[in-house]
Amino acid sequence: MIVGPNGSGKTTLLRIASTYLWPSRGRVEVLGETIGRTDARELRRRIGYVSAALADEIDPALTALDIVLSARQAALAPWWATFTADDRRRAAGGLARLGLAGFAERTFGSLSSGERSRVLLARTLMTEPDLLLLDEPAAGLDLGAREDLLTRLTELAAGPIAAIALVTHHLEEIPVGFDRALVLAAGQALADGPIERVLTDAILSRAYGLALVVERRAGRWSARARRPGQ
Predict the structure, then answer these.
(1) Cα–Cα distance for residue pair 12/8, rounded to 1 Å
(2) What's the pLDDT score for residue 39?
(3) H-run or E-run covering 49
(4) Whole-number Å distance between alpha carbons of 5 and 195
(5) Of 23, 25, 78, 210, which shows the fewest CB atoms inside 10 Å?
(6) Largest CA distance in the chain
(7) What parts of the chain have a pLDDT lower than 50?
């Protein structure tokens, strides 16, 4: 998982890793492929990507089923592709897996924020990705929708996906089972490694320029400002 203050480069990092943003300099390798030297369309089929920016690019008139199906072609719409009956069964099964059975014909624009997040997550699983990139998937969700999403992400973390990278502003949104962390500050990696060695008072206080207390209870993290005299 990836944390850091606004402007530290979290979203940019994920957009480059997803191949939706081209690096202006340097060399970037994702899943053993060098961006710029491989077909981005083929690489995208191995990467699942969920972000608010991506959601904004989706036609709100598309149905949930069409959005999930479009992942087969690493596209944002299904108009120029042909799908098999098996593709449609798989897409419907993905929606059901995320608690959206019966939502196949609902339009994206008619869904709640939590439902949209789950549709996009179902979309990422359509191609059985080797890498799952989640940019603030719980942003804007109410408490119930957030906890439902985190439960499903905890299940995914225990599954066959090789790696999941999650960006969040809130430690409370880290699903149980995530075992590594990266802290960014001013576009640089401040710390990375095992999560319990990275999410510490000292490292996060340095990243945010504020005295923080970091806690972990029953596998869930939290952070708050240190009170005077504490």
Answers:
(1) 9
(2) 84
(3) strand 47-51
(4) 18
(5) 25
(6) 65
(7) none
CB 20 within 8 A of CB 54: yes
Please check whether residue 49 is in contact with residue 71, taking contact to mean a CB–CB distance below 8 angstroms: no
As a residue count, the chain comes to 230
Q: What is the mean pLDDT of the chain?
A: 89
pLDDT for 88:
92
- Give how far the C-alpha of residue 14 lies from the chain's centroid of Cα atoms, to the nearest Å: 9
Residue with tokens 């789950």: 118
Instruction: Label residue 1 exposed, middle or buried (CB < 10 Å: 0-12, 13-18, 19+).
Output: buried
Q: What letter would DSSP give residue 174? A: P
The pLDDT of residue 229 is 66
pTM for the predicted model, two decimal places: 0.83
Distance CA 91, CA 64 (A): 9
Query: Domain coordinates of the chain in residue numbers?
Result: 2-225
Fold (topology level) of 2-225:
Rossmann fold (3.40.50)
